Amino acid sequence: MGKMKPLFSTNTDKKKYLFAGMVVVATISLAFLVNRLMPHASLSLLFLTGVLVVSARTGLGPSLLSSIVSFLAYNFFFTPPYYTFEVADDGDVATLLFFLIIAAITGNLAARMHLEIAKRRTSLQRISNLYEFSRRMSSAASESTVLESLADHLAKSLERPVQVFTMATGEDEEPEQRATANNPIPIASDRLKLVWNQGLVNSEAAPELHAIRLATRTGVVGMVVIDGILDDEQLELTKSLCDQATIALDRTQLVEDLEQAKLVTETEQLRSALLSSISHDLRTPLASIIGSTTSLMEYGDSFSTTDRKDLLSTVTTEAQRLDRHIQNLLDMTRLGQGKLKLQREWVDLHDIISSAINRASVFKDKVTINTSVTNDVPVIWVHGVLIEQAVVNLMDNAIRFTPEDGVVTITAIDSGGNLKINVCDEGPGIPEKEREKVFDMFYTIRQGDRGQLQGTGLGLAICRGMIAAHGGTVTAKDGLQGTGTCMQIIIPIEIPEN
């Protein structure tokens, strides 16, 4: 036989019944004050008003109690014979009975209205709860964020400990705790695994817990464990929140799959571009070298001294070009693997630019190179070889796109603690929408009179990586007088502490 629910189950119930008693006392006091001003039969309306006030503010129990007490008080104090529960007039008996019936009906109706309002308020709170959680789920970008948000929100909504588990991968698959809210729930690993396999609310393995599995399109991905027994309303809320969480988990998994597919596609594109670049830009100088050396070996005696020098010059030029391509590939590998270490030293910028000009493209004799370094440019604390290589790469590009007899201009100034180096050409320029793309690996622009001399598309990417290692930037800007392009290097002028 079940236990009877106590009359005052909570402090809230006590307050409701206390409020009902206070209203009845206040009604009786007010009835004594106005008793001489109005017929005693009309006082029943005053007591009915009190019953309605109690019903509207409390519930069915307090309203019925107030109606019975009001009926007895009205009979005891205001119907003859006074101060007794006897009724002298038969008409008063009917009045009292109608009062009791009307008080009970109006109290019941008011209590039901109050209950309906409470239900609507609860429903609104639930909708608000679900909306808030849905908003958190929509911004969750990873599985861990979804699981942590679910545990936190459930714990706050249910006011009890909550844990979320996923199945760990490996030879010994065991449920792995991913999120905890409030206090950890003590449960042995073997029982936890049995709960996972059963996947039931109030599992036989742990009847004092609620366990709900999270199933997405790929299968069961997690399990929510809640301490204690849930009522129907709490269980419905929990299932709704878990359903939203599984949708969010599906979305994050799809995003991860798309990112992985994008990465695979980009990797394939990069590999194809690299193979294409190597096959073209490495084989071209090799073909020239092989052709020149074969001609010298087979027909060397029939060539004049000038022809032999030209062929040897071609071998040297193409070998240097091949060496630059290989150096660019090695530099890009070091940058990509994070193995580029700075070996700083004090360097004169004049020496860097002079050395870069000597190492620049074999076509430098077909253009004019002007340099301008202001006197206030100090010696700089940098990795000199890397800065020189960056300037060489920019000069190669500038020379490549500048028409014959054109001018390539190199300037350097000290600009408020930053060193600015500009390498400007007179080529066709770079469209504004492509000025950032040219620093991507293997990206080239096929335009200009010397477009056929384009390289691997690594030079600017390497240049940016080398300058970034010094905390600087490389950007493409409009050329001098609106013609061509200026590549601008900005490096902070650092002074070592020692």
Automatic annotation (TrEMBL):
What superkingdom heads the lineage?
Bacteria
One GO molecular function term of this record is: phosphorelay sensor kinase activity
Q: Report which reactions are catalysed by this protein.
A: ATP + protein L-histidine = ADP + protein N-phospho-L-histidine
Q: Where in the cell is it found?
A: Membrane
Q: Does the keyword Kinase apply?
A: yes
Q: Where is the Histidine kinase domain?
A: 277-495
User: Which InterPro entries does the annotation name?
Assistant: GAF-like_dom_sf, HATPase_C_sf, HATPase_dom, His_kinase_dom, HisK_dim/P_dom, HisK_dim/P_sf, Histidine_kinase_KdpD, KdpD_sf
Q: Where is this chain primarily localised?
A: membrane
Membrane-topology annotation of the record: Multi-pass membrane protein
Q: What is its EC number?
A: 2.7.13.3
Where exactly are the transmembrane stretches of this chain? Answer: 17-34, 46-73, 93-111
| Any one Gene Ontology cellular component term annotated for this protein | plasma membrane
Could you list this entry's UniProt keywords, alphabetically sorted: ATP-binding, Kinase, Membrane, Nucleotide-binding, Phosphoprotein, Transferase, Transmembrane, Transmembrane helix, Two-component regulatory system
Which SUPFAM superfamilies does the entry link to?
Answer: ATPase domain of HSP90 chaperone/DNA topoisomerase II/histidine kinase (SSF55874), GAF domain-like (SSF55781), Homodimeric domain of signal transducing histidine kinase (SSF47384)
The entry's protein name is histidine kinase
Q: Which organism is it from?
A: Thiohalophilus thiocyanatoxydans
